[in-house]
Specification:
about 180 residues, mainly beta, L,D-transpeptidase catalytic domain-like, five-stranded mixed beta sheet, 1 helix, about 5% helix, globular
């Protein structure tokens, strides 16, 4: 429900909570891609423009959160800190790992980055405990998630990491990741 209160547009939730519309990020339904052939396929839909991630089971959205993609926005990932766009699949998952970059002027080294899921070369979805700027571009090209969201997505996606293992690599068959403009 939408109404105007004290000159501001507010939206009501099913729980009876009212929130100022300008403070919200609304995720509109997106066209389901043709690779989704059944109701059991788990896949991720990431929007660089909206800075959102939607987890789907078939055509049904099951989880929505804000992300921080590459600081280069819609630029070329080959020449800027942009997140690559296209259809990928998760091929490697790690409960935690060290991440580093040695590009002159933007060197970094972060130990114990949580819930890392590689989907294209060195690009990954992962938890980011060093900032809370989700919903805005921020990264060197990876898809940053709040740690709690990263944990949920890590458990949702394949390949599964067996109990007691620290990581897993597969050649084909990982969860599809669609990154749109």
């Amino acid at each position: 429900e939408k109404k105007v209160h004290a000159g501001k547009t507010v939206l009501g939730s099913h729980e009876g909570v009212w929130v100022q519309e300008s403070l919200l990020t609304m995720v509109e339904p997106r066209e389901v891609p043709t690779f989704v052939k059944n109701d059991t396929l788990r896949w991720l839909d990431i929007s660089v423009r909206d800075q959102t991630l939607v987890a789907y089971r078939g055509k049904q959205p099951v989880y929505v959160t804000l992300v921080s993609t590459g600081s280069g926005g819609m630029g070329d990932p080959e020449t800027t800190h942009s997140t690559p766009r296209g259809l990928f699949a998760i091929f490697s998952k790690h409960v935690s790992t060290k991440m580093s970059g040695d590009e002159i002027g933007s060197e970094y080294l972060i130990d114990d980055v949580p819930y890392v899921q590689y989907f294209h070369h060195g690009y990954a979805l992962h938890g980011a405990f060093w900032h809370d700027n989700f919903g805005r571009v921020q990264s060197h090209g990876c898809v940053n998630l709040a740690p709690a969201d990263a944990a949920w997505v890590f458990e949702f996606t394949g390949p599964e990491v067996p109990e007691g293992w620290h990581g897993r690599y597969v050649k084909g068959g990982g969860t599809p990741v669609l990154i749109r403009p």
